[in-house]
Amino acid sequence: MKIDKLAVPVFTTGSLFEPVDIKSASEEKSFGEMLSAAISDVDGLQKVSAQKNIDLAAGRLEDVSEVMIAAEKASVALQLTVQVRNKVVEAYQEMMRMQM
After folding, report:
1. How far apart, in Å, are the Cα atoms of 67 and each of 18, 28, 51, 70?
2. Hey, what's the torsion of the CAs at 44, 50, 53, 57, to 10 degrees?
């Protein structure tokens, strides 16, 4: 069984699970593009997990560990997305409370 490296996806420049490369960080992407790519990656992980569940139920997949790993990856990615969203909302609310 092969275990993939888990990269911290907080400051990535591309896919959600690509490690950060300082040299490629000079590529300018808008916040919207980065957000869209991250949400797309989370959606992709959710779809892979759902398909593996269907394959297991249909008998096309015998290894339960593949299904569990896919489900856990999707769960962790979704939890990270929700926590980042919460921090962004919290920062926005804090800025709105500031007096000028």
Report:
1. 22, 36, 9, 5
2. -140
- Integer Cα distance of 81 and 11 in angstroms: 13
Specify whether the CB–CB gap between 11 and 18 falls below 8 A: no
Q: Structure pTM?
A: 0.67
Mean pLDDT by 10 residues, the chain (100 residues): 52 54 65 90 96 95 93 96 95 90
d(C-alpha 35, C-alpha 43), whole Å: 12
**Chain centre distance of CA 58:** 27
CA distance 65 to 49: 12
